[in-house]
Design a protein that fits this description.
Order of helices and strands of chain B: HHEEHHHHHHHHHHEEH
Strand order of the largest sheet of chain A: 5-6-7-3-8-9
Distance between the termini of chain A: 33 Å
Largest sheet of chain B: 2 strands, antiparallel
CATH superfamily of the largest domain in chain A: P-loop containing nucleotide triphosphate hydrolases
CATH class of the largest domain in chain A: Alpha Beta
Strand content of chain B: 5-15%
Helix content of chain B: 55-70%
Radius of gyration of chain B: 22 Å
Structural class of chain A: alpha/beta
Number of strands of chain A: 13
Shape of chain A: elongated
CATH topology of the largest domain in chain A: Rossmann fold
Structural class of chain B: mainly alpha
Largest sheet of chain A: 6 strands, mixed
Oligomer: heterodimer
Order of helices and strands of chain A: EEEHEHEHHHEHEHEEHEHEEHEH
Number of domains of chain B: 1
Number of helices of chain B: 13
Chain lengths: ~300, ~300
Amino acid sequence: MRIKLEQVTKNYGNVQGISNINLDVGTGITGILGPNGAGKSTTMKMILGLSRPSRGRVTVEGKDPFTSQDLKRNFGFVPEYDCFYEHMTGLEFVAYFLRMHDISKEKAEGMARESLSELGLELAMDRKINTYSRGMRQKTKVARATVFNPEILIMDEPFQGADPTTRILLMEKMTKWAENGKTILVSSHILHDVQSLTDNIALINNGKMLAYGNRHEIRDLINIPRPISIVPVKKGNLRKLAKIMIDKKWTKATAIDEENNEVTIETNQSEEIYLELPKILQKEKITVEKIYSEDDSLDSLYSKLVEGAQWK
Amino acid sequence: MKSKAQVSERFRDFDANLTTRPWIVIGMGLRKFGQIMKFKNYGLWSLIVIVYLFALVRFILFADSENYPCMDMGDEYQRCVPLDYYGDFFTQGGTRIFLISIAAIASGGVIGNDMANKSIHLYLSRPISRLDYLIARFIPVFLIMILVTLVPNIMIFTSMWSDSGLKTDWLLDHKWLIFDLIVQAMVYSTGLAIIGLTFSTAIKKENPASAAFFLFIYGSSTICEIFFIALKVIEVDGADFILLLSVSHLLDCISFAIFDAKYYVMASGFPWETDISNIQIGAVFTVIFAGCSGLMYWMIQQMEANK
Protein backbone atom coordinates (compact mmCIF):
# COMPACT_ATOMS: atom_id res chain seq x y z
CA MET A 1 0.00 0.00 0.00
CA ARG A 2 1.21 3.48 -0.84
CA ILE A 3 1.43 6.29 1.70
CA LYS A 4 1.91 9.82 0.39
CA LEU A 5 2.48 13.07 2.19
CA GLU A 6 2.46 16.14 -0.04
CA GLN A 7 3.64 19.48 1.33
CA VAL A 8 2.22 18.58 4.71
CA THR A 9 2.37 21.14 7.49
CA LYS A 10 0.93 20.68 10.94
CA ASN A 11 0.59 23.53 13.40
CA TYR A 12 -0.41 23.28 17.05
CA GLY A 13 -1.56 26.81 17.72
CA ASN A 14 1.52 28.93 17.21
CA VAL A 15 3.85 25.97 17.35
CA GLN A 16 4.79 24.31 14.10
CA GLY A 17 4.80 20.54 14.41
CA ILE A 18 6.01 19.69 10.94
CA SER A 19 6.58 21.84 7.90
CA ASN A 20 6.24 21.04 4.20
CA ILE A 21 6.90 17.35 4.56
CA ASN A 22 6.91 15.21 1.43
CA LEU A 23 7.05 11.46 1.71
CA ASP A 24 6.22 8.56 -0.55
CA VAL A 25 6.34 5.17 1.10
CA GLY A 26 5.62 1.78 -0.44
CA THR A 27 5.77 -1.78 0.83
CA GLY A 28 8.65 -2.89 3.02
CA ILE A 29 10.15 -1.26 6.06
CA THR A 30 10.82 2.46 6.24
CA GLY A 31 12.51 3.98 9.24
CA ILE A 32 11.42 7.42 10.39
CA LEU A 33 14.27 8.96 12.28
CA GLY A 34 14.90 12.20 14.06
CA PRO A 35 15.58 13.70 17.46
CA ASN A 36 12.96 14.14 20.16
CA GLY A 37 10.29 16.58 19.06
CA ALA A 38 11.37 16.36 15.43
CA GLY A 39 7.86 15.53 14.24
CA LYS A 40 8.07 11.75 13.80
CA SER A 41 5.01 10.93 15.90
CA THR A 42 3.02 13.77 14.35
CA THR A 43 3.82 12.41 10.90
CA MET A 44 2.80 8.90 11.90
CA LYS A 45 -0.43 10.01 13.51
CA MET A 46 -1.43 11.97 10.44
CA ILE A 47 -0.90 8.84 8.37
CA LEU A 48 -3.14 6.99 10.84
CA GLY A 49 -5.84 9.64 10.58
CA LEU A 50 -5.56 10.51 14.27
CA SER A 51 -4.56 14.00 13.34
CA ARG A 52 -5.23 16.08 10.25
CA PRO A 53 -2.74 18.35 8.46
CA SER A 54 -3.03 22.12 8.74
CA ARG A 55 -1.89 22.32 5.13
CA GLY A 56 -1.03 19.79 2.46
CA ARG A 57 -2.38 16.33 1.83
CA VAL A 58 -1.93 12.94 3.44
CA THR A 59 -3.21 9.98 1.45
CA VAL A 60 -3.06 6.25 1.82
CA GLU A 61 -3.92 4.48 -1.41
CA GLY A 62 -5.27 7.82 -2.59
CA LYS A 63 -7.71 8.19 0.32
CA ASP A 64 -7.70 10.59 3.25
CA PRO A 65 -7.07 8.52 6.39
CA PHE A 66 -8.78 11.11 8.63
CA THR A 67 -12.14 10.62 6.94
CA SER A 68 -11.94 7.19 5.38
CA GLN A 69 -13.07 4.61 7.93
CA ASP A 70 -12.76 1.92 5.32
CA LEU A 71 -9.04 2.59 5.07
CA LYS A 72 -8.47 2.09 8.76
CA ARG A 73 -9.18 -1.60 8.54
CA ASN A 74 -5.72 -1.83 6.97
CA PHE A 75 -3.91 -0.11 9.83
CA GLY A 76 -2.03 -1.57 12.72
CA PHE A 77 -0.74 0.95 15.24
CA VAL A 78 1.89 0.45 17.90
CA PRO A 79 1.95 3.67 19.93
CA GLU A 80 5.02 4.96 21.65
CA TYR A 81 3.20 5.33 24.94
CA ASP A 82 1.52 2.71 27.09
CA CYS A 83 -2.24 2.76 26.65
CA PHE A 84 -3.38 -0.41 28.32
CA TYR A 85 -6.32 -1.34 30.42
CA GLU A 86 -4.01 -2.47 33.21
CA HIS A 87 -6.64 -4.64 34.92
CA MET A 88 -6.97 -6.83 31.83
CA THR A 89 -4.77 -9.77 30.94
CA GLY A 90 -2.72 -9.50 27.76
CA LEU A 91 -5.09 -11.98 26.14
CA GLU A 92 -8.18 -10.03 27.17
CA PHE A 93 -6.64 -6.77 25.95
CA VAL A 94 -5.82 -8.03 22.48
CA ALA A 95 -9.15 -9.88 22.19
CA TYR A 96 -11.04 -6.80 23.44
CA PHE A 97 -9.95 -4.75 20.46
CA LEU A 98 -10.63 -7.62 18.09
CA ARG A 99 -14.14 -7.91 19.43
CA MET A 100 -14.75 -4.36 18.29
CA HIS A 101 -15.10 -5.97 14.91
CA ASP A 102 -18.15 -7.96 15.81
CA ILE A 103 -16.47 -11.32 15.94
CA SER A 104 -17.24 -14.00 18.48
CA LYS A 105 -15.47 -14.08 21.83
CA GLU A 106 -14.03 -17.54 21.07
CA LYS A 107 -12.64 -16.51 17.71
CA ALA A 108 -11.23 -13.26 19.11
CA GLU A 109 -9.51 -15.15 21.92
CA GLY A 110 -8.15 -17.71 19.47
CA MET A 111 -6.69 -14.99 17.26
CA ALA A 112 -5.33 -13.07 20.25
CA ARG A 113 -3.72 -16.22 21.62
CA GLU A 114 -2.04 -16.89 18.27
CA SER A 115 -0.77 -13.34 17.99
CA LEU A 116 0.59 -13.23 21.53
CA SER A 117 2.17 -16.68 21.21
CA GLU A 118 3.83 -15.60 18.00
CA LEU A 119 5.55 -12.90 19.99
CA GLY A 120 6.61 -15.23 22.78
CA LEU A 121 3.98 -14.34 25.37
CA GLU A 122 2.35 -17.76 25.58
CA LEU A 123 3.16 -18.10 29.28
CA ALA A 124 2.31 -14.53 30.26
CA MET A 125 -0.83 -13.85 28.27
CA ASP A 126 -3.16 -14.88 31.08
CA ARG A 127 -1.49 -12.55 33.57
CA LYS A 128 -2.74 -9.04 34.20
CA ILE A 129 -0.96 -6.35 32.22
CA ASN A 130 -0.01 -4.47 35.38
CA THR A 131 2.40 -7.32 36.16
CA TYR A 132 4.12 -7.09 32.77
CA SER A 133 7.70 -6.00 32.18
CA ARG A 134 8.50 -3.28 29.67
CA GLY A 135 9.38 -5.84 27.00
CA MET A 136 6.14 -7.74 27.55
CA ARG A 137 4.19 -4.53 27.19
CA GLN A 138 5.92 -3.76 23.91
CA LYS A 139 5.11 -7.24 22.64
CA THR A 140 1.48 -6.91 23.74
CA LYS A 141 1.18 -3.63 21.85
CA VAL A 142 2.66 -5.24 18.76
CA ALA A 143 0.36 -8.26 19.13
CA ARG A 144 -2.67 -5.97 19.39
CA ALA A 145 -1.63 -4.12 16.25
CA THR A 146 -0.73 -7.15 14.16
CA VAL A 147 -3.64 -9.38 15.15
CA PHE A 148 -5.77 -7.50 12.61
CA ASN A 149 -3.36 -8.65 9.91
CA PRO A 150 -2.92 -5.04 8.76
CA GLU A 151 -1.47 -4.04 5.42
CA ILE A 152 0.14 -1.01 7.03
CA LEU A 153 1.90 -1.24 10.34
CA ILE A 154 2.82 2.02 12.04
CA MET A 155 5.26 1.45 14.89
CA ASP A 156 6.24 4.41 17.01
CA GLU A 157 9.40 3.58 18.96
CA PRO A 158 8.63 -0.14 19.19
CA PHE A 159 12.04 -0.94 20.67
CA GLN A 160 11.85 1.64 23.41
CA GLY A 161 12.72 0.03 26.72
CA ALA A 162 12.79 -3.43 25.18
CA ASP A 163 15.59 -5.80 26.18
CA PRO A 164 17.91 -7.14 23.44
CA THR A 165 15.98 -10.41 23.19
CA THR A 166 12.70 -8.60 22.63
CA ARG A 167 14.33 -6.27 20.13
CA ILE A 168 15.73 -9.14 18.11
CA LEU A 169 12.40 -10.96 18.19
CA LEU A 170 10.50 -7.88 17.08
CA MET A 171 13.00 -7.25 14.30
CA GLU A 172 12.64 -10.82 13.08
CA LYS A 173 8.89 -10.47 13.00
CA MET A 174 8.99 -7.11 11.27
CA THR A 175 11.33 -8.44 8.60
CA LYS A 176 8.98 -11.38 8.07
CA TRP A 177 5.92 -9.15 7.80
CA ALA A 178 7.73 -6.87 5.36
CA GLU A 179 8.68 -9.89 3.26
CA ASN A 180 4.98 -10.72 3.16
CA GLY A 181 4.28 -7.42 1.43
CA LYS A 182 3.28 -5.27 4.38
CA THR A 183 4.11 -1.58 4.58
CA ILE A 184 5.89 -0.92 7.85
CA LEU A 185 6.79 2.49 9.17
CA VAL A 186 9.00 2.39 12.20
CA SER A 187 10.45 5.19 14.25
CA SER A 188 13.28 4.51 16.63
CA HIS A 189 16.04 6.21 18.52
CA ILE A 190 18.16 3.10 18.29
CA LEU A 191 19.87 3.73 15.00
CA HIS A 192 21.59 0.38 14.92
CA ASP A 193 18.23 -1.39 15.07
CA VAL A 194 16.81 0.61 12.20
CA GLN A 195 20.00 0.00 10.22
CA SER A 196 19.55 -3.73 10.77
CA LEU A 197 15.98 -3.54 9.55
CA THR A 198 16.10 -1.34 6.49
CA ASP A 199 18.04 0.96 4.23
CA ASN A 200 14.96 3.06 3.53
CA ILE A 201 14.79 5.98 5.86
CA ALA A 202 13.15 9.35 6.32
CA LEU A 203 15.13 11.82 8.38
CA ILE A 204 13.16 14.54 10.13
CA ASN A 205 14.51 17.34 12.25
CA ASN A 206 12.77 20.42 13.63
CA GLY A 207 9.65 19.44 11.73
CA LYS A 208 11.41 19.42 8.39
CA MET A 209 12.25 16.49 6.16
CA LEU A 210 16.03 16.43 5.79
CA ALA A 211 16.22 13.42 3.53
CA TYR A 212 14.36 10.32 2.54
CA GLY A 213 15.11 7.30 0.45
CA ASN A 214 17.84 4.67 0.48
CA ARG A 215 20.47 5.67 3.01
CA HIS A 216 23.38 4.85 0.65
CA GLU A 217 21.86 7.00 -2.06
CA ILE A 218 21.28 9.75 0.45
CA ARG A 219 24.94 9.58 1.45
CA ASP A 220 26.02 9.89 -2.16
CA LEU A 221 23.99 13.08 -2.47
CA ILE A 222 25.79 14.71 0.43
CA ASN A 223 28.85 16.65 -0.60
CA ILE A 224 30.87 15.98 2.53
CA PRO A 225 34.15 14.02 2.28
CA ARG A 226 33.90 10.38 3.25
CA PRO A 227 36.39 9.03 5.81
CA ILE A 228 38.17 5.78 4.89
CA SER A 229 40.42 4.17 7.49
CA ILE A 230 43.37 1.91 6.70
CA VAL A 231 44.98 -0.22 9.40
CA PRO A 232 48.48 -1.43 8.41
CA VAL A 233 49.92 -4.59 9.99
CA LYS A 234 53.16 -2.79 10.90
CA LYS A 235 52.81 0.36 12.95
CA GLY A 236 55.98 1.68 11.31
CA ASN A 237 54.11 2.03 8.01
CA LEU A 238 51.64 4.58 9.40
CA ARG A 239 53.56 7.71 8.43
CA LYS A 240 54.69 6.27 5.09
CA LEU A 241 51.10 5.44 4.22
CA ALA A 242 49.87 8.87 5.27
CA LYS A 243 52.52 10.56 3.12
CA ILE A 244 51.60 8.49 0.05
CA MET A 245 47.93 9.21 0.51
CA ILE A 246 48.24 12.94 0.98
CA ASP A 247 49.89 13.26 -2.40
CA LYS A 248 46.96 11.68 -4.20
CA LYS A 249 44.52 13.94 -6.04
CA TRP A 250 41.46 12.34 -4.47
CA THR A 251 42.60 12.94 -0.93
CA LYS A 252 41.17 15.98 0.86
CA ALA A 253 42.87 15.29 4.20
CA THR A 254 44.68 12.60 6.14
CA ALA A 255 44.97 11.89 9.83
CA ILE A 256 47.19 9.50 11.76
CA ASP A 257 45.81 7.75 14.81
CA GLU A 258 48.82 6.09 16.43
CA GLU A 259 46.84 4.74 19.33
CA ASN A 260 44.52 2.75 17.08
CA ASN A 261 47.24 2.21 14.48
CA GLU A 262 45.31 3.64 11.56
CA VAL A 263 45.42 6.28 8.87
CA THR A 264 42.17 7.97 7.97
CA ILE A 265 41.77 9.77 4.69
CA GLU A 266 38.86 11.97 3.68
CA THR A 267 37.74 11.91 0.07
CA ASN A 268 34.92 12.72 -2.28
CA GLN A 269 35.96 9.92 -4.66
CA SER A 270 35.71 6.84 -2.51
CA GLU A 271 35.07 4.48 -5.41
CA GLU A 272 38.33 5.55 -7.04
CA ILE A 273 40.18 4.96 -3.78
CA TYR A 274 38.80 1.47 -3.41
CA LEU A 275 40.02 0.71 -6.96
CA GLU A 276 43.45 2.30 -6.62
CA LEU A 277 44.35 1.45 -3.05
CA PRO A 278 45.24 -2.25 -3.59
CA LYS A 279 47.61 -1.29 -6.37
CA ILE A 280 49.31 1.35 -4.22
CA LEU A 281 49.67 -0.97 -1.27
CA GLN A 282 51.11 -3.70 -3.47
CA LYS A 283 53.60 -1.32 -5.04
CA GLU A 284 54.73 0.08 -1.65
CA LYS A 285 54.77 -3.43 -0.10
CA ILE A 286 52.50 -2.38 2.75
CA THR A 287 50.36 -5.11 4.22
CA VAL A 288 47.11 -4.00 5.81
CA GLU A 289 44.92 -5.54 8.43
CA LYS A 290 41.72 -3.89 7.29
CA ILE A 291 40.21 -1.03 5.32
CA TYR A 292 36.90 0.28 6.53
CA SER A 293 34.59 3.24 6.43
CA GLU A 294 32.06 3.99 9.13
CA ASP A 295 30.63 6.64 6.92
CA ASP A 296 27.92 4.38 5.49
CA SER A 297 26.41 3.77 8.89
CA LEU A 298 23.16 5.39 9.84
CA ASP A 299 24.91 6.88 12.81
CA SER A 300 27.29 8.71 10.54
CA LEU A 301 24.50 9.85 8.25
CA TYR A 302 22.69 11.28 11.23
CA SER A 303 25.59 13.23 12.51
CA LYS A 304 25.99 14.74 9.07
CA LEU A 305 22.34 15.59 8.51
CA VAL A 306 21.13 16.26 11.99
CA GLU A 307 23.34 18.61 13.91
CA GLY A 308 22.77 18.44 17.63
CA ALA A 309 24.17 16.69 20.64
CA GLN A 310 20.78 15.35 21.76
CA TRP A 311 20.96 12.81 18.99
CA LYS A 312 23.70 10.91 20.69
CA MET B 1 15.81 -15.94 20.09
CA LYS B 2 13.54 -17.98 17.91
CA SER B 3 9.88 -17.78 18.68
CA LYS B 4 8.39 -21.12 19.58
CA ALA B 5 4.95 -20.42 18.24
CA GLN B 6 4.11 -20.66 14.59
CA VAL B 7 1.94 -18.30 12.64
CA SER B 8 -1.35 -19.91 11.91
CA GLU B 9 -2.53 -18.60 8.58
CA ARG B 10 -6.12 -19.59 9.24
CA PHE B 11 -6.20 -16.86 11.85
CA ARG B 12 -4.49 -14.45 9.55
CA ASP B 13 -7.31 -13.78 7.15
CA PHE B 14 -8.92 -11.17 9.37
CA ASP B 15 -10.98 -8.58 7.61
CA ALA B 16 -12.96 -5.96 9.49
CA ASN B 17 -16.39 -6.14 7.99
CA LEU B 18 -17.66 -2.59 7.96
CA THR B 19 -21.20 -3.57 7.05
CA THR B 20 -21.62 -4.54 10.70
CA ARG B 21 -20.64 -1.12 12.04
CA PRO B 22 -23.82 -0.64 14.06
CA TRP B 23 -23.10 -3.95 15.77
CA ILE B 24 -19.50 -2.93 16.33
CA VAL B 25 -20.70 0.19 18.15
CA ILE B 26 -23.39 -1.65 20.10
CA GLY B 27 -20.90 -4.38 20.97
CA MET B 28 -18.40 -1.81 22.24
CA GLY B 29 -21.13 -0.20 24.31
CA LEU B 30 -22.33 -3.48 25.81
CA ARG B 31 -18.82 -4.63 26.67
CA LYS B 32 -18.15 -1.32 28.41
CA PHE B 33 -21.44 -1.73 30.25
CA GLY B 34 -20.25 -5.17 31.37
CA GLN B 35 -16.95 -3.68 32.54
CA ILE B 36 -18.56 -0.91 34.55
CA MET B 37 -21.06 -3.30 36.08
CA LYS B 38 -18.43 -5.67 37.44
CA PHE B 39 -19.07 -6.50 41.09
CA LYS B 40 -15.74 -5.07 42.12
CA ASN B 41 -17.13 -1.60 41.42
CA TYR B 42 -18.44 -1.52 44.96
CA GLY B 43 -19.39 2.15 44.98
CA LEU B 44 -21.65 1.85 41.97
CA TRP B 45 -23.20 -1.38 43.13
CA SER B 46 -23.84 0.01 46.60
CA LEU B 47 -25.74 2.93 45.12
CA ILE B 48 -27.73 0.67 42.81
CA VAL B 49 -28.68 -1.54 45.76
CA ILE B 50 -29.69 1.56 47.77
CA VAL B 51 -31.91 2.75 44.92
CA TYR B 52 -33.64 -0.62 44.67
CA LEU B 53 -34.09 -0.96 48.42
CA PHE B 54 -35.38 2.58 48.55
CA ALA B 55 -37.83 1.88 45.73
CA LEU B 56 -38.93 -1.27 47.51
CA VAL B 57 -39.51 0.36 50.88
CA ARG B 58 -40.72 3.82 49.86
CA PHE B 59 -42.73 3.03 46.76
CA ILE B 60 -43.72 -0.63 46.96
CA LEU B 61 -44.19 -1.66 50.58
CA PHE B 62 -45.81 1.57 51.71
CA ALA B 63 -47.68 2.44 48.52
CA ASP B 64 -51.30 2.01 47.72
CA SER B 65 -52.58 1.10 44.26
CA GLU B 66 -55.59 3.36 44.82
CA ASN B 67 -53.33 6.41 44.74
CA TYR B 68 -51.14 5.14 41.95
CA PRO B 69 -49.76 6.72 39.89
CA CYS B 70 -51.10 10.10 41.02
CA MET B 71 -53.17 11.54 43.84
CA ASP B 72 -54.64 15.01 44.10
CA MET B 73 -52.92 17.40 46.44
CA GLY B 74 -55.33 20.26 46.93
CA ASP B 75 -57.18 21.68 43.95
CA GLU B 76 -54.29 22.43 41.70
CA TYR B 77 -51.47 19.99 42.19
CA GLN B 78 -51.01 16.28 41.88
CA ARG B 79 -48.51 14.08 43.62
CA CYS B 80 -47.34 11.28 41.31
CA VAL B 81 -45.23 8.31 42.31
CA PRO B 82 -43.10 8.34 39.12
CA LEU B 83 -42.42 12.06 39.69
CA ASP B 84 -41.64 11.59 43.36
CA TYR B 85 -39.27 8.77 42.47
CA TYR B 86 -37.00 11.24 40.66
CA GLY B 87 -37.51 13.91 43.30
CA ASP B 88 -35.10 15.22 45.87
CA PHE B 89 -34.42 12.90 48.80
CA PHE B 90 -34.73 15.64 51.41
CA THR B 91 -37.84 17.39 50.16
CA GLN B 92 -39.78 14.68 48.34
CA GLY B 93 -38.24 11.45 49.57
CA GLY B 94 -37.04 10.70 46.04
CA THR B 95 -33.90 9.08 44.66
CA ARG B 96 -32.42 12.12 42.88
CA ILE B 97 -29.22 12.29 44.91
CA PHE B 98 -28.55 8.59 44.29
CA LEU B 99 -29.38 8.79 40.59
CA ILE B 100 -27.02 11.72 40.12
CA SER B 101 -24.32 9.91 42.09
CA ILE B 102 -24.75 6.82 39.93
CA ALA B 103 -24.57 8.90 36.76
CA ALA B 104 -21.44 10.63 38.11
CA ILE B 105 -19.67 7.37 38.93
CA ALA B 106 -20.76 5.63 35.73
CA SER B 107 -19.83 8.42 33.36
CA GLY B 108 -16.78 9.98 35.02
CA GLY B 109 -14.15 7.71 33.56
CA VAL B 110 -15.86 6.45 30.44
CA ILE B 111 -14.23 8.85 27.99
CA GLY B 112 -11.85 10.60 30.39
CA ASN B 113 -9.87 7.44 31.13
CA ASP B 114 -9.59 6.61 27.43
CA MET B 115 -8.27 10.10 26.81
CA ALA B 116 -5.95 10.10 29.83
CA ASN B 117 -4.34 6.75 29.03
CA LYS B 118 -4.58 7.49 25.31
CA SER B 119 -6.35 4.23 24.52
CA ILE B 120 -8.75 6.44 22.56
CA HIS B 121 -6.06 6.49 19.85
CA LEU B 122 -6.29 2.71 19.64
CA TYR B 123 -10.03 2.96 19.04
CA LEU B 124 -9.75 5.79 16.54
CA SER B 125 -7.08 3.97 14.57
CA ARG B 126 -9.65 1.24 13.96
CA PRO B 127 -12.39 1.67 11.36
CA ILE B 128 -14.84 3.54 13.55
CA SER B 129 -15.59 7.24 13.42
CA ARG B 130 -15.41 9.62 16.34
CA LEU B 131 -19.19 9.73 16.42
CA ASP B 132 -19.29 5.92 16.57
CA TYR B 133 -16.94 6.07 19.51
CA LEU B 134 -19.13 8.62 21.30
CA ILE B 135 -22.25 6.54 20.75
CA ALA B 136 -20.41 3.46 22.01
CA ARG B 137 -19.48 5.35 25.16
CA PHE B 138 -22.99 6.76 25.60
CA ILE B 139 -24.58 3.29 25.56
CA PRO B 140 -23.18 1.94 28.87
CA VAL B 141 -24.01 5.07 30.87
CA PHE B 142 -27.47 5.20 29.34
CA LEU B 143 -28.08 1.53 30.16
CA ILE B 144 -26.95 1.96 33.76
CA MET B 145 -29.28 4.91 34.15
CA ILE B 146 -32.14 2.92 32.61
CA LEU B 147 -31.37 0.23 35.15
CA VAL B 148 -31.99 2.64 38.02
CA THR B 149 -34.79 4.69 36.48
CA LEU B 150 -37.01 2.61 34.24
CA VAL B 151 -36.54 -0.81 35.84
CA PRO B 152 -37.52 0.20 39.42
CA ASN B 153 -40.49 2.15 38.06
CA ILE B 154 -41.64 -0.86 36.08
CA MET B 155 -41.25 -2.91 39.27
CA ILE B 156 -43.40 -0.39 41.13
CA PHE B 157 -45.93 -0.50 38.29
CA THR B 158 -46.00 -4.33 38.42
CA SER B 159 -46.36 -4.26 42.17
CA MET B 160 -49.32 -1.89 41.93
CA TRP B 161 -50.90 -4.10 39.31
CA SER B 162 -50.41 -7.04 41.61
CA ASP B 163 -51.89 -4.98 44.48
CA SER B 164 -54.96 -4.37 42.34
CA GLY B 165 -55.44 -8.10 41.96
CA LEU B 166 -53.64 -8.53 38.64
CA LYS B 167 -56.73 -7.34 36.80
CA THR B 168 -56.51 -7.00 33.05
CA ASP B 169 -58.72 -3.91 33.20
CA TRP B 170 -56.24 -2.19 35.49
CA LEU B 171 -53.45 -2.97 33.05
CA LEU B 172 -55.45 -1.68 30.11
CA ASP B 173 -56.39 1.47 32.02
CA HIS B 174 -52.76 2.13 32.83
CA LYS B 175 -51.08 1.18 29.58
CA TRP B 176 -50.40 4.88 28.92
CA LEU B 177 -48.35 4.88 32.08
CA ILE B 178 -45.84 2.39 30.69
CA PHE B 179 -45.22 4.69 27.74
CA ASP B 180 -44.83 7.68 30.07
CA LEU B 181 -42.46 5.78 32.35
CA ILE B 182 -40.33 4.79 29.38
CA VAL B 183 -40.21 8.32 27.96
CA GLN B 184 -39.47 9.81 31.38
CA ALA B 185 -36.65 7.32 32.06
CA MET B 186 -35.19 7.92 28.61
CA VAL B 187 -35.21 11.69 29.07
CA TYR B 188 -33.48 11.44 32.46
CA SER B 189 -31.02 8.78 31.35
CA THR B 190 -30.12 10.52 28.10
CA GLY B 191 -29.82 13.89 29.79
CA LEU B 192 -27.63 12.75 32.64
CA ALA B 193 -25.54 10.48 30.40
CA ILE B 194 -24.80 13.25 27.90
CA ILE B 195 -23.85 15.77 30.57
CA GLY B 196 -21.80 13.15 32.43
CA LEU B 197 -19.89 12.25 29.27
CA THR B 198 -19.32 15.93 28.52
CA PHE B 199 -17.67 16.36 31.92
CA SER B 200 -15.66 13.19 31.39
CA THR B 201 -14.44 14.44 27.99
CA ALA B 202 -13.68 17.94 29.19
CA ILE B 203 -11.95 17.06 32.46
CA LYS B 204 -10.30 13.81 31.30
CA LYS B 205 -9.85 12.51 34.84
CA GLU B 206 -12.34 10.12 36.38
CA ASN B 207 -12.71 11.35 39.96
CA PRO B 208 -12.60 15.10 39.25
CA ALA B 209 -15.05 14.61 36.37
CA SER B 210 -17.46 12.66 38.59
CA ALA B 211 -17.20 15.24 41.37
CA ALA B 212 -17.66 18.17 38.99
CA PHE B 213 -20.68 16.51 37.40
CA PHE B 214 -22.26 15.82 40.78
CA LEU B 215 -21.66 19.37 41.96
CA PHE B 216 -22.92 20.80 38.70
CA ILE B 217 -26.18 18.85 38.76
CA TYR B 218 -26.94 18.55 42.45
CA GLY B 219 -25.20 21.73 43.54
CA SER B 220 -26.89 23.87 40.92
CA SER B 221 -30.21 22.25 41.81
CA THR B 222 -29.86 23.17 45.48
CA ILE B 223 -28.61 26.69 44.76
CA CYS B 224 -31.32 27.39 42.20
CA GLU B 225 -33.98 26.11 44.56
CA ILE B 226 -32.75 28.34 47.40
CA PHE B 227 -32.73 31.38 45.10
CA PHE B 228 -36.11 30.41 43.68
CA ILE B 229 -37.71 30.27 47.12
CA ALA B 230 -35.98 33.49 48.20
CA LEU B 231 -37.12 35.35 45.10
CA LYS B 232 -40.63 33.95 45.50
CA VAL B 233 -40.77 35.13 49.10
CA ILE B 234 -39.80 38.66 48.11
CA GLU B 235 -42.17 38.34 45.14
CA VAL B 236 -39.76 39.00 42.33
CA ASP B 237 -41.26 38.58 38.86
CA GLY B 238 -39.76 35.86 36.73
CA ALA B 239 -38.31 33.98 39.71
CA ASP B 240 -39.44 30.74 38.05
CA PHE B 241 -36.90 31.05 35.28
CA ILE B 242 -34.02 30.55 37.67
CA LEU B 243 -35.10 26.90 37.81
CA LEU B 244 -34.17 26.54 34.16
CA LEU B 245 -30.55 26.97 35.21
CA SER B 246 -30.76 23.69 37.09
CA VAL B 247 -30.61 20.53 34.98
CA SER B 248 -32.52 18.56 37.63
CA HIS B 249 -35.37 21.04 37.67
CA LEU B 250 -35.39 21.21 33.92
CA LEU B 251 -35.72 17.42 33.76
CA ASP B 252 -38.45 17.63 36.41
CA CYS B 253 -40.31 20.19 34.28
CA ILE B 254 -40.20 17.74 31.37
CA SER B 255 -41.32 14.88 33.62
CA PHE B 256 -44.30 16.84 34.83
CA ALA B 257 -45.14 17.69 31.23
CA ILE B 258 -44.94 14.01 30.29
CA PHE B 259 -47.46 13.21 33.05
CA ASP B 260 -49.52 16.26 32.14
CA ALA B 261 -49.27 17.52 35.72
CA LYS B 262 -48.80 21.13 36.78
CA TYR B 263 -45.20 21.70 37.73
CA TYR B 264 -44.35 22.82 41.26
CA VAL B 265 -41.28 22.86 43.42
CA MET B 266 -41.58 21.08 46.74
CA ALA B 267 -39.79 22.92 49.52
CA SER B 268 -40.43 23.40 53.24
CA GLY B 269 -43.25 20.89 52.91
CA PHE B 270 -45.20 23.12 50.51
CA PRO B 271 -45.62 23.07 46.75
CA TRP B 272 -44.30 26.32 45.25
CA GLU B 273 -46.09 27.39 42.15
CA THR B 274 -44.18 27.92 38.93
CA ASP B 275 -45.16 29.30 35.60
CA ILE B 276 -42.85 28.15 32.84
CA SER B 277 -44.29 27.28 29.45
CA ASN B 278 -43.49 24.02 27.67
CA ILE B 279 -41.95 25.98 24.82
CA GLN B 280 -39.52 27.66 27.20
CA ILE B 281 -38.68 24.33 28.81
CA GLY B 282 -38.22 22.69 25.42
CA ALA B 283 -36.01 25.52 24.20
CA VAL B 284 -33.72 25.42 27.24
CA PHE B 285 -33.58 21.62 27.14
CA THR B 286 -32.60 21.73 23.48
CA VAL B 287 -29.95 24.38 24.08
CA ILE B 288 -28.38 22.54 27.03
CA PHE B 289 -28.37 19.06 25.59
CA ALA B 290 -27.56 20.02 22.02
CA GLY B 291 -24.84 22.24 23.46
CA CYS B 292 -23.38 19.43 25.55
CA SER B 293 -23.59 16.93 22.68
CA GLY B 294 -22.06 19.44 20.30
CA LEU B 295 -19.30 20.37 22.73
CA MET B 296 -18.46 16.75 23.40
CA TYR B 297 -18.39 15.91 19.69
CA TRP B 298 -16.29 18.98 18.99
CA MET B 299 -13.81 18.06 21.73
CA ILE B 300 -13.49 14.53 20.37
CA GLN B 301 -13.23 15.87 16.84
CA GLN B 302 -10.54 18.32 17.85
CA MET B 303 -8.77 15.73 19.93
CA GLU B 304 -5.62 15.00 18.09
CA ALA B 305 -2.89 12.66 18.97
CA ASN B 306 -0.48 15.13 20.46
CA LYS B 307 2.19 14.24 22.89
